[in-house]
Write a structure and sequence with these properties.
CATH architecture of chain B: Up-down Bundle
Strand content of chain A: 25-35%
Pfam family, one (chain B): PaaA_PaaC
Number of strands of chain A: 10
CATH topology of the largest domain in chain A: GMP Synthetase, Chain A, domain 3
CATH class of the largest domain in chain A: Alpha Beta
Oligomer: heterodimer
Number of helices of chain A: 5
Organism (chain B): Bizionia saleffrena
Strand content of chain B: under 5%
CATH class of chain B: Mainly Alpha
Number of domains of chain B: 1
Bound molecules: zinc ion
Largest sheet of chain B: none
Distance between the termini of chain B: 29 Å
Structural class of chain A: alpha/beta
Largest interface: A-B, 25 and 27 residues
Distance between the termini of chain A: 17 Å
Order of helices and strands of chain A: EHEEHEEHEHEHEEE
Helix content of chain A: 25-40%
Radius of gyration of chain A: 17 Å
Protein name (chain B): Phenylacetate-CoA oxygenase subunit PaaC
Number of domains of chain A: 2
Shape of chain B: globular
Number of helices of chain B: 10
Number of strands of chain B: 0
CATH topology of chain B: Ferritin
InterPro entries (chain A): Fe-S_Maturation_MIP18, FSCA_dom_sf, MIP18-like, PaaD-like, Zn_ribbon_PaaD
Radius of gyration of chain B: 18 Å
Structural class of chain B: mainly alpha
Protein name (chain A): Phenylacetate-CoA oxygenase subunit PaaJ
Largest sheet of chain A: 4 strands, mixed
């Protein structure tokens, strides 16, 4: 078992066209959910892994991958794999920036994440004004992968992408 | 069926999450506040996601026409083997959180052991689920403390919830024949070994929440053998309605 991705280089630009349906600014490549994509006998075999077990976006992502590969001239087989389990560490730096630009605070490291979610520490940066004077409103946000925060300087509510390790 | 013990063992794990997920899902649009409403339905979604992985695996073992959907929706009451705790109704928010907490503490301990299983599919599901369930436990633990150590009214409601759900906790540590067979093969978790740790974790939170630890030694059981409380038929009629009204329907 390996945490390395195995993706055929010519497929990368194609797969980058597929975005997370719940976070449209983020490609599935930057999200780190594509674990392998290889061509065998003109068929592309793709392995994707869910961010959260119940993530309803996975079926849509699978269908979207099939569609872009079809347009590029490939038939494909999509497999959902569970191991190794997805972690927020697999979001690329470009993905983190896309999240922030979209208004979702990117995940902190595991220890800092505990501090903000359990101990009320104010370090999550407001995506609107950049202040760290922010507080946790609820551990669950618009989806299971996010928590709700509010900025006490500009008052803007925003989502924080929880650390998953 | 080959691997019948493994099949039954998987149902024993997954049915708990299915029924608890259904209970939490009933709160959609009915939570006491927007945030708690969303939290409960998010936890429900996590549990359903985990259940799908277990049932897909079980369907593969069963073969024939079995799918995750037939296992979830087309069994009779006596064929569900979830513990009685998870089928208890949402009387009020204290009750919902007490039920969640009493299950989450068990669930996390269980998954920590299941990670070490010799069955690689179960190991993968456990490793995935454990990350989600840690958040559930944080959430429910937080509410036990907030309501327990809150106002007189919230304290009393939480105490009442803990007192009435306590009787369902012992069943978490009972073993079925399939459980014993799977433990012997290094696949299953020996739940009897989790009991002491479970009560010490639960009791520590209750104390911090200024709640009394129930003294009753009388415990209910039956769910693991398919003998359910009166609430269960209602859950099933709700949950199975679409499949019974429109057989083989798909989304
Ligand atoms: Zn701000």
């Amino acid at each position: 078992m390996t945490t390395e991705q195995n993706i055929d280089e010519i497929l990368i630009p194609i797969l980058e066209h597929v975005s997370d349906p719940e976070i449209p600014v983020l490609s599935i490549m930057d999200m780190g959910v594509v674990r392998s994509a290889v061509i065998k006998n003109k068929i592309v075999y793709v392995e994707i892994t869910p961010t959260y077990s119940g993530c309803p976006a996975m079926d849509v992502i699978g269908d979207d991958i099939k569609t872009v590969l079809k347009v590029a001239g490939y038939d494909s087989r999509i497999e959902l794999i569970l191991a190794p389990a997805w972690t927020t560490d697999w979001i690329t730096p470009r993905g983190r920036k896309a999240l922030e630009d979209y208004g979702i605070a990117a995940p902190l490291g595991a220890e800092a994440d505990k501090d903000v979610l359990l101990n009320g520490k104010r370090i999550v940066k407001c995506t609107n004004c950049g202040s760290q004077n922010t507080r946790l409103v609820s551990q669950f946000g618009s989806t299971a992968c996010k928590a709700q925060f509010q900025c006490d300087d500009c008052q803007e509510p925003f989502d924080y992408f929880k650390c998953l390790k | 069926m080959k691997n019948e013990n493994l099949y039954n063992y998987i149902l024993g794990i997954a049915d708990n999450s299915l029924i608890l997920g259904q209970r939490l899902g009933e709160l959609t649009g009915h939570g006491p506040s927007l945030e708690t409403d969303i939290a409960c339905t998010n936890m429900s979604l996590d549990l359903f996601g985990q259940v799908r992985s277990y049932y897909q695996y079980a369907a593969k073992l069963k073969g024939g026409d079995a799918t995750e959907d037939t296992i979830a929706f087309l069994r009779k009451e006596r064929d569900y083997v979830n513990v009685l705790l998870v089928e208890q109704p949402d009387r009020d928010f204290a009750y919902t959180m007490a039920r969640q907490f009493l299950f989450d503490v068990y669930h996390l301990l269980f998954l920590q052991e299941l990670q070490k299983s010799h069955d690689i599919t179960l190991t993968a599901i456990a490793k995935k689920s454990i990350k989600e369930v840690s958040y559930h436990q944080r959430f429910s633990t937080d509410w036990i403390k907030r309501l327990g150590d809150g106002t007189t009214v919230s304290h009393d409601k939480m105490q009442e919830a803990i007192d009435s759900l306590w009787t369902y906790t012992d069943e978490l540590f009972h073993q079925t024949a399939a459980d014993k067979a799977m433990v012997a093969e290094g696949i299953g978790v020996d739940v009897t070994a989790l009991k002491v740790k479970y009560y010490s974790l639960v009791n520590a939170v209750l104390e911090e929440a200024t709640l009394k630890i129930p003294e009753s030694k009388w415990f209910q059981k039956g769910g693991k053998k398919g003998i359910h409380t009166e609430h269960f038929g209602y859950i099933l009629s709700n949950m199975q309605y679409m499949q019974l009204a429109y057989p083989n329907m798909e989304w």
